[in-house]
Amino acid sequence: DYFADLPGMISLAPVPFAQYPMITRQIDIGLAPLDYKDGFNDSKSDVKALEYSVSRRRLDDGSYGGAAVIATDHKVYRRSCSNRHNALLVRNHSDADEWAETICTLIEDVHLRRRLQKNANKWVVQNRNINTAWPLWARAYSDMLANRKEV
User: Fold this and answer.
1) Cα(108)–Cα(84) distance, rounded to whole angstroms?
2) pLDDT digits (tens, 9 = 90+) for 46-91
3) Interatomic CA distance for residues 151 and 20, integer angstroms
4) Closest among 6, 79, 86 to 45, alpha carbons compared
5) In 10 A of CB 118, how many CB atoms?
6) Which of 86, 28, 85 is nearest to 59 (CA)?
7) What is the reported pTM?
8) 129, 133, 113: which is closest to 63 by C-alpha?
9) Helix or strand or coil: residue 70?
10) Contacts of 78 (CB under 8 A, 6+ apart)
11) Three-class SS of residue 86?
12) CA–CA separation, 10 and 124 (whole Å)
């Protein structure tokens, strides 16, 4: 709710799953906050940051990148987000003012925003791309099948 009054903030209604990738390609800055008081978040994945990062789109300088990610500095997001390299991490116990300040930083610093967008997209392609990682999955499934026990 505390983001609602920020200038230029757009809130979108839910969309069918098939349209979601199109929506993420329109996002310039993606937010991935976690509530540090909610123990469930210790078991979450970093998929929200990855979705923003992988949303390959043409940037205004002609290059490609995802959305710039601002995420809570939590072990979940530290798996894929490196502060000031491919994302900005906000303290785990931060308040609305710190989030707003970080958002303003990316709005005002176009060079930082573009660098984060490019680096995030590049990281996901190199580290989480099914086209290059499928042999690892195939080996894992083969190992599971080879080692299964009949019940």
Assistant:
1) 15
2) 999 999 999 888 998 899 999 999 999 999 999 999 999 999 999 9
3) 41
4) 79
5) 18
6) 28
7) 0.80
8) 113
9) strand
10) 89
11) coil
12) 26
